[in-house]
Specification:
This protein has 266 residues and is of the alpha/beta class. Helices cover 38% and strands 14% of the residues. It has 3 domains: 33 residues; 83 residues; 134 residues, Nucleotidyltransferase, domain 5. The chain contains 8 helices and 8 strands; from the N terminus they run βββαααβαββαββααα. The longest helix has 17 residues. The relative contact order is 0.14.
């Protein structure tokens, strides 16, 4: 909200008046400043975000705040977009890398897609090679995670992300998937566990933290009855954010998220 001006005369000096409105010192015009493009007061945003961080539905938020369902839906959509941009910086120390797969619920597929899955055997196919949406994640042992949708899980897809998000020289733990074989050559201390042989921990080498996040993510998505693929980036960003700031009290989560929303554009 910094830097906004009177919509009538463009003056930047104003008074704060009733119900979150501003009054221009020059022309005395009163208006409600827009936050992230919505004509909602800061107090209204706080109410919406408070119920949102508690995990309530749009209908419940609308009922509790007495704000229209349309405005609440628009506000939550903006909040999710802001969450996707509030990501940790470059990781260092010991990190874990892994991939998982999301989507594929029958209710999200057309009849043609279902028939194709049955004929090709994709209906029951799981893991690498599936038609589900691949997701790549990086987790630091300090408790922060980064995750994004990827087109594929080959070296050309994953190594550039690691190079951008993990400091060279860091200890990178992974399974033995072929995409990670070039990590040592790029300056990382690469350690693996052999999931195919039933090995999940080798000393301090494991990806249990990231496996835990995948479980958390899938439970959250399942609780919503599944999410269509086109909406996955927003919901992935939301749950990455919720996981990273899970130790903050709801009031502090609201403060952080309101700041991100206030500075949000596009």
């Amino acid at each position: 909200m910094k830097g906004y001006s009177c919509p009538r005369c463009q003056n930047r000096k104003f008074y704060s008046v009733r119900r979150g409105k501003k009054r221009c010192k020059n022309c005395l015009y009163e208006w409600t400043p827009k936050i992230a493009g919505l004509r909602l007061t800061r107090a209204a945003w706080k109410k919406i975000l408070f119920w949102f961080v508690l995990g309530h539905s749009l209908r419940t938020i609308s009922q509790q705040t007495q704000i229209s369902h349309y405005s609440v839906e628009k506000a939550i959509n903006i909040a999710r977009k802001a969450m996707t941009r509030d990501v940790p910086g470059v990781f260092s120390g010991t990190v874990e890398v892994d991939e998982t797969y999301l989507g594929g619920q029958k209710k999200n597929k057309t009849k043609a897609q279902l028939l194709k899955d049955i004929l090709t055997g994709e209906e029951s196919k799981r893991g690498r090679g599936t038609t589900k949406q691949p997701v790549f994640g990086i987790l630091t042992r300090k408790g922060r995670v980064f995750a994004r949708l990827v087109d594929d899980t080959e070296a050309g897809d994953l190594l550039p992300i690691i190079a951008k998000r993990v400091k060279v020289g860091s200890r990178v733990c992974s399974d033995t998937w072929r995409a990670y074989t070039g990590l040592a050559a790029k300056g990382y201390v690469h350690r693996t566990v052999e999931h195919g042989d039933g090995e999940y921990v080798r000393g301090k080498n494991h990806i249990n933290g990231l496996e835990g996040f995948w479980g958390y993510l899938k439970r959250k998505l399942a609780a919503k009855g599944g999410v269509k693929r086109k909406y996955l980036p927003l919901f992935l960003g939301e749950y990455v954010w919720r996981y990273n700031y899970r130790e903050l009290e709801p009031e502090k989560q609201v403060v952080r998220l309101l700041k991100k929303v206030t500075n949000f554009s596009g």
